[in-house]
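Quick review question:
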């Protein structure tokens, strides 16, 4: 991947003709999953282990803060380069792309095809449904 524009380097795409993501992105993905678990586990330990609740709460909040700061930075870089390249206008006006335009399109497609985002959304949705059901069960049925 070339450095044709200032500061933009696609490090996640076009390796061996398929999208590959850096290890750091996987680290932040697992950080987000653990933060999701931490926040959702707070209810179960609320009355039994107050120290664990505080640990879960703070680790969940810090985990989400770091994860979303990382995602914001990556998305912001891509959005900035998309704006600089006038790629949207080029697509709408059916203008020719240069090499850098293709790199940006490739980065966008890699982002949209990310397995981590799909897993993350499913995990958040699944735990957001499961935890209230388990909470209702333990609070009112058990």
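Suggested answer, residue by residue:
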């Amino acid at each position: 991947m070339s450095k044709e524009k200032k500061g933009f380097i696609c490090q996640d795409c076009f390796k061996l003709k398929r999208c590959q993501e850096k290890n750091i992105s996987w680290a932040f993905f697992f950080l987000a999953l653990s933060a999701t678990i931490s926040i959702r586990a707070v209810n179960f330990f609320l009355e039994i282990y107050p120290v664990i609740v505080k640990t879960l709460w703070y680790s969940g909040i810090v985990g989400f803060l770091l994860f979303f700061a990382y995602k914001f930075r990556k998305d912001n870089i891509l959005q900035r380069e998309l704006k600089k390249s006038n790629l949207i206008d080029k697509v709408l006006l059916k203008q020719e792309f240069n090499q850098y335009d293709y790199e940006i399109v490739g980065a966008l497609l890699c982002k949209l095809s990310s397995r981590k985002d799909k897993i993350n959304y499913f995990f958040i949705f699944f735990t957001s449904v499961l935890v209230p059901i388990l909470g209702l069960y333990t609070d009112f049925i058990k």
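Why it works: Confidence is low (pLDDT under 50) at residues 1-17. Residues 3 and 9 are 6 Å apart (CA to CA).
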